[in-house]
Structure formats: structure tokens, C-alpha cells
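Researcher: Let's do a round of design. I'm pasting the C-alpha cells now; please hold your answer until I've finished.
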């Protein structure tokens, strides 16, 4: 068995998700950086690992390559069930996955680097328009997410109850991205509170973009 390898990039929020999950599970790994802004994810060497050309890609101990951060977190949950990142009950698990998908399916894909680059190169968008686009799609989902978290008695110190899980991981990573595009967080006191509670934990803080070996 060899060590786990995580192909990632310090600024990538989907990589940040997996770094947090690995840290919470206490799993060590080798960090391999690919500079997305220099296009290293499009080089043949990386495409041989993940033909999709996206990070994160996790090489498991047996050499199997896994992409897609949500699938990787689900895998880690199955092979290392403690501490649990999903609730014990089916409804709870569905609620946590709902929050993960609000962020992972409805915000991240349309604000991803390749989409922002396409807005620039195909449609001539400038920095101001890119920022406006990014904030628009965050707010579209953060407004209902704030309400869901505020209204539910399932919300505790964290998104679901009093222990951190996958929803918190997605939330923290998205808030880190928001900061780069000056998203106003004042309309989101519950999201901000949960983010702050998470960041008190080493697993979240040590996995943050600024703490990574390729941080600039
Ligand atoms: N759905 C994928 C998305 C992965 C993804 O898009 N990663 C970004 C970084 S956060 C990336 O590699 N972007 C490269 C690009 O846009 O060219 C996941 O959750 O892992």
C-alpha cells in the first residue's frame, strides 16, 4: 500500500473540501500542486491522471484515481466512518447532501475558473463583470441557504447538529472563494457564524488555501 496522493491547488475550493475531509478523518496524504492559472491541469501529465483536467484528484492507496470532491468525500466516509461526516439518520443525510449540492451543483460549477475564463474570452467580460457574475450566483443560493439554516431546528453549532460534516466543509470552502470576489457576507449571519465555528478547528484552518505549500 502506498500513500494517498491529493492532486490539488491551494485556491481551489473543491480541493479545499477534500483537504478538510482528509484532515477530519485523520488521513495523511502527499500534496501535489497543479497551478490552475498557469494551465498545469491541462498538461498531458495531469490529463493522464484525470482526463477531466480538474482538481481535486485523489490517488487512493491501490492506485485508483478518484475525481469529484463530493464523490471523494462519500468514499472517505465509507472507508473511514469515524468521525462521521454524515448524520446517522436518512433524513439527516439527505439534508446534509442537499446543502452540499446547493453549493456543489448550483454555485461552484457556474463560477469555476474555466467558466469565468470563457466569459472573458468568448464574450469579452471584464473584471467588474466577472465579479458581478460570481456574486450574483453566490447570492442566488446563499439567500435560500441562509433561510434553510436559520429556520431549521436541525441546524446547531454546525449546519446539521453540533458536529462538523460535509455540509460545513462545502460551506467553508465556498466562503473562502467568496472572499476573493468581495461577496458581502452581512446578509448571511448564520452562514458566517457556522464558518467561524469551523475555522476554530485545526482540520478546517490547516486546510485553508493560505496554509498550503503552493500558496502565493
Ligand atoms: N465538480 C468538481 C469540480 C472540480 C473543479 O471544477 N475544480 C476546479 C478548481 S475548484 C478546477 O479544476 N478548475 C480548473 C479549470 O476551471 O480549468 C468537484 O467537485 O471536484
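Researcher: That's everything. Go ahead.
Model: Designed sequence:
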Amino acid at each position: 500500500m502506498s500513500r494517498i496522493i491529493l492532486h490539488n491547488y491551494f485556491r481551489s475550493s473543491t480541493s479545499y473540501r477534500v483537504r478538510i475531509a482528509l484532515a477530519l478523518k485523520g488521513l495523511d496524504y502527499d500534496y501535489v500542486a497543479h497551478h490552475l492559472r498557469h494551465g498545469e491541469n491541462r498538461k498531458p501529465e495531469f490529463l493522464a491522471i484525470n482526463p477531466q483536467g480538474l482538481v481535486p484528484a485523489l490517488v487512493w492507496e491501490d492506485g485508483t484515481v478518484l475525481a469529484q470532491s463530493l464523490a471523494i468525500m462519500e468514499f472517505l466516509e465509507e472507508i473511514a466512518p469515524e468521525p462521521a461526516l454524515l448524520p446517522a439518520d436518512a433524513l439527516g443525510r439527505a439534508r446534509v447532501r442537499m446543502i452540499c449540492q446547493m453549493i456543489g451543483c448550483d454555485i461552484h460549477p457556474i463560477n469555476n475558473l474555466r467558466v469565468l475564463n470563457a466569459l472573458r474570452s468568448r464574450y469579452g467580460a471584464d473584471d467588474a463583470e466577472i465579479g458581478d457574475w460570481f456574486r450574483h450566483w453566490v447570492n442566488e443560493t446563499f439567500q435560500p441557504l441562509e433561510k434553510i439554516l436559520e429556520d431549521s431546528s436541525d441546524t446547531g453549532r454546525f449546519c446539521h447538529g453540533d458536529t462538523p460534516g460535509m455540509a460545513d466543509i462545502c460551506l467553508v470552502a465556498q466562503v473562502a472563494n467568496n472572499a476573493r470576489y468581495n461577496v458581502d457576507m452581512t446578509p448571511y449571519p448564520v452562514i458566517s457564524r457556522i464558518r467561524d465555528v469551523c475555522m476554530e478547528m485545526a482540520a478546517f484552518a490547516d486546510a485553508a488555501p493560505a496554509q498550503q505549500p503552493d500558496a502565493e
